[in-house]
Amino acid sequence: MLHTETDLDKLTAQSIDTVRRWLRVSTSMTTAKNPAAERLSAVLSDENGLDFTVGFVDRVVRTDDVHAAADALTEVGKLAPETMSYLDRAQIKAGAALAKIAPQVVVPAARTRLRQMVGHMVVDARDKQFGKTVAALTADGHRLNINLLGEAVLGDGEADNHLEQTHRLLARDDVDYVSVKVSSVASQISMWAFDETVDYVVERLRPLYSQAAKAPTGAKFVNLDMEEYQDLELTIAVFTRLLSEPEFKELEAGIVIQAYQPDALGAVQRLSEFSARRVENGGVGVKVRLVKGANLAMETVHAEIAGWPATTCDSKQSTDANYKRVLHWLFTPERMKGLRIGVAGHNLFDIAFAHHLSVERSVTDRVEFEMLQGMASEQAAAVTEDVGDLLLYVPAVHPKEFDVAISYLVRRLEENSASENFMSGIFDLANGNDVFKREADRFTASVNQLESILETEGETAPAPNRHQNRSTETLGETVVPTQFFNEPDTDPSLPANQEWVRKIIAEATAPGYLDDRPNTPKIESTDELDEMIARGRAAAADWRALGAAGRAEILHRAADIFAARRGEFIAVEAAEVGKMPSQSDPEVSEAIDFIRYYALNSLELEKLEGAEFTPDEMVVITPPWNFPVAIPTGGTV
């Protein structure tokens, strides 16, 4: 019988008491403070702090042209937070005043100062500097997870370079653990061809895993990271495919799962089963690094642009509860057979919760605690007295490529400044003060939410927020909307949609596909042309007689028919003009948008005093080959 019964109220009280003890210990420790971290915390505590810091990072550091950077510095300097030290603030103000006069001098100096301010968050990847940093960080017994920073690559050259640099890192004697993302080693990834993409990424990553496998057992570790929801299933598929190959039977490797996605528990359950099968077949297990997730803004923007539901939990408390839900389900000897977990994060209450739960469930030997390098070093030192040495996540970048660190830094800055995040009050957290009470209350609320979930849903994994399935969509009754909304594109990251488009392309590329479809009758003579024009002119009167409401209803019905026949449009475009689904699918959405937009606006025009609808009796549309659906539709309606 699985040991999953836990007194959550007792565990909550234990966790809060443990945090109190850690805070007492941290104040008495002689661990060297991090001036840069404290300076940055002070800046972010100001109401202008985030705008100032992000503006500085994004517009001054990132901009290549020193004159444009000087203009940005002049603007950003006006936001210099009052919480900065007198010297720092004076330097920023002086730099802002002189930037346009001497940009060649001021801008490089300002960039250097900013890098010093965030230097504790990103390590210099140059060999000599990197070696010194690694030696210093490992002196206390901690292991390091090195992540060579880089966002989704746009070309093969960039992907090759990132992969080559990761190979070089793993080959170093002082590096035994690296993280890499699918999106940073393979360019132009397409979820529309999921199986082919998995094959391609596996081929790209196999040499890196081979490099780790050839080292002595346990000497080298590769962690497969991820950032976007669209990469979730792809990353899991690549990970399990690679580790199912005989060459890697004895290689332990890791994967990241983000708890701010409701899908996290289901993903961990699958990985637990995969790990157990590996062990039963004579192999070694795997490791899951559980994080809360740090790409909320990006996920939100992507969802809004595409018209999809957000992939993340609906609140910070729900994310915290889901994080604990995964731990609560996983922490049993049976479910962690061959599986290790990295509990990653800086929330002391969550760390204490995970620690006490692992002790109660007798899985402490399968749990490793992880933190970001350079963040809250005093609290981290206190935590190690209970949980042992930490695994530090260390992002690295070459100074000449500092721009690739911008996105990472912005995410960290937003995380540290948002009041709902634990890190926003890390330097003010002390026993008995308001920040402690706030965080303890938030922690308790998340545990209470977990308890409520367990009572109503048990251990069943929650359904994902996105469940679009094009293969089940049919034409139903038309409901005329009261306001315009964009037609959602197809989400190619969902397995059901991947199977749907796979069948469409197989049909469209089959020999004779177009021959079997009904052809539009050709006009063979001027008499036939005259007859067609006459019919069109006559129909104009009937169209006008319908009235605005009648015309709008027909147009909305047409939009629904377009949506129901999306797959046919994609197939015909693929067969006739060679458009890929990634191009034709949004074009179908655009055509539907045209229809609905004009339908709704026709109702508004009807309200104008003196306005009278006079239909065009004949319109000739000559669209280009590359937009055979959207442009004819927009011109027609």
UniProtKB/TrEMBL annotation:
<dbReference type="Pfam" id="PF00171">
    <property type="entry name" value="Aldedh"/>
</dbReference>
<dbReference type="InterPro" id="IPR050485">
    <property type="entry name" value="Proline_metab_enzyme"/>
</dbReference>
<feature type="domain" description="Proline dehydrogenase">
    <location>
        <begin position="132"/>
        <end position="424"/>
    </location>
</feature>
<dbReference type="GO" id="GO:0004657">
    <property type="term" value="F:proline dehydrogenase activity"/>
</dbReference>
<dbReference type="InterPro" id="IPR016162">
    <property type="entry name" value="Ald_DH_N"/>
</dbReference>
<dbReference type="Pfam" id="PF01619">
    <property type="entry name" value="Pro_dh"/>
</dbReference>
<dbReference type="InterPro" id="IPR016161">
    <property type="entry name" value="Ald_DH/histidinol_DH"/>
</dbReference>
<dbReference type="GO" id="GO:0010133">
    <property type="term" value="P:L-proline catabolic process to L-glutamate"/>
</dbReference>
<dbReference type="GO" id="GO:0003842">
    <property type="term" value="F:L-glutamate gamma-semialdehyde dehydrogenase activity"/>
</dbReference>
<dbReference type="GO" id="GO:0009898">
    <property type="term" value="C:cytoplasmic side of plasma membrane"/>
</dbReference>
<protein>
    <submittedName>
        <fullName>Bifunctional proline dehydrogenase/L-glutamate gamma-semialdehyde dehydrogenase</fullName>
    </submittedName>
</protein>
<keyword id="KW-0560">Oxidoreductase</keyword>
<keyword id="KW-0520">NAD</keyword>
<dbReference type="InterPro" id="IPR029041">
    <property type="entry name" value="FAD-linked_oxidoreductase-like"/>
</dbReference>
<feature type="domain" description="Aldehyde dehydrogenase">
    <location>
        <begin position="526"/>
        <end position="634"/>
    </location>
</feature>
<dbReference type="InterPro" id="IPR015590">
    <property type="entry name" value="Aldehyde_DH_dom"/>
</dbReference>
<dbReference type="InterPro" id="IPR002872">
    <property type="entry name" value="Proline_DH_dom"/>
</dbReference>
